[in-house]
Specification:
By secondary structure, this protein is an alpha+beta fold. It has 3 domains: 79 residues, Uridine Diphospho-n-acetylenolpyruvylglucosamine Reductase, domain 2 (2-Layer Sandwich), CATH 3.30.43.10; 111 residues, Uridine Diphospho-n-acetylenolpyruvylglucosamine Reductase, domain 3; 94 residues, Alpha-Beta Complex (Uridine Diphospho-n-acetylenolpyruvylglucosamine Reductase, domain 1). 24% of the residues lie in helices and 25% in strands. Helix 2 runs antiparallel to helix 5. It is globular. The N terminus is likely disordered.
């Protein structure tokens, strides 16, 4: 994915109450610690600040919302757009009966813990890296449960600055994807969470966290799973089988566990994790991913699809 459109000039930008920074490097805002500058980085003070900004912004000016950068490669040349990052004004978590309302900037694990303390089970969120806005956009999931299983509705601000609520059924939630309105920024999500014993939910989350830590390189700079699992295949390659063929297995069978390019490496611990082993550029990381795709296709005939979002322009 690339960011199309012209650079955003200062005279075209409305006044804000939050922070609006020109030529802001994005490497410190992504888990992989790579990426060139955004034309502008907008961090709205609150919902009204975001809505007013989008309403006043030139309709042709490109925008790109990001979360905590847990599933993102920003290319070395940066992003020709206004990058919007939600912060403290968007991270509240409220539990009311079976409804858990979470701001888009609330970390997934924090939402799971808040729900558990109130006797509501959103334990699948506990091991998903990132924040709620990104979880909705990617229909994030773990251990067989997905956002689509619990999401009831979302609040968003459209590209024109209007605030809308959309039911989950209208979001086109599918495997690692959604169909949000173009240019819309998710600001809240409301989940319907089943009731459960707080201690048992906490135990389940602890077990899931331990399982994740034992199998994934959580102490390295990664962006989660690099490639989606191929749909509709079993480990024998038969179409229509209920069991997924795992991307990590294809990568491993292709001999790409531990493969390197510059400072980028496919994890030895989990070969579907692309990590910045030190000094990697975005080009190193994306290039290694493309090498993995070619090798997997050559050895298995399967075409891997990126799960990590890649945005921006290559370095000049």
């Amino acid at each position: 994915m690339t960011q199309a459109g012209r650079a955003v000039d200062a005279p075209a930008l409305p006044n804000v109450r939050g922070s609006l920074t020109p030529n802001r490097p994005l490497d410190t805002l992504t888990w992989l610690r790579v990426g060139g500058p955004a034309d502008w980085l907008f961090q709205p003070a609150d919902h009204a600040d975001l809505a007013d900004f989008l309403a006043a912004l030139d309709p042709d000016a490109p925008i790109f919302p990001i979360g905590v950068g847990s599933n993102l490669i920003v290319r070395d040349g940066g992003v020709r757009a206004v990058v919007i990052r939600l912060g403290r004004g968007f991270n509240a978590v409220v539990v009311d009966g079976n409804e858990v309302t979470a701001g888009a900037a609330a970390l997934d694990s924090r939402v799971a813990r808040a729900a558990a303390a109130a006797g509501r089970d959103l334990s699948f969120l506990a091991t998903i890296p990132g924040a709620i806005g990104g979880a909705v956009r990617m229909n994030a999931g773990c251990y067989g449960s997905y956002v689509a299983d619990a999401l009831d509705r979302v609040e968003l601000v459209t590209r024109s600055g209007a605030t809308e609520w959309l039911p989950a059924a209208e979001l086109g939630l599918a495997y690692r994807s959604s169909e949000l309105p173009p240019g819309a920024v998710v600001t809240k999500a409301v989940f319907k969470a089943p009731e459960g014993d707080p201690e048992k939910i906490a135990e389940r989350m602890a077990e899931q966290t331990a399982r994740r830590d034992a199998t994934q390189p959580v102490k390295e700079r990664s962006a989660g799973s690099t490639f989606r699992n191929p749909a509709g295949y079993s480990s024998t390659g038969r179409a229509g089988d209920r069991h997924e063929l795992k991307a990590w297995r294809l990568i491993d069978d292709a001999g790409m566990r531990g493969a390197r390019r510059g400072g980028a490496r496919m994890s030895e611990k989990h070969p579907n994790f692309l990590v910045n082993a030190g000094g990697a550029t975005a080009e190193d990381l994306e290039g290694l991913g493309e090498e993995v795709k070619k090798k997997v296709f050559k050895t298995s005939g399967h075409v891997l699809e990126w799960e990590i979002m890649r945005v921006g322009e290559p370095a000049p």
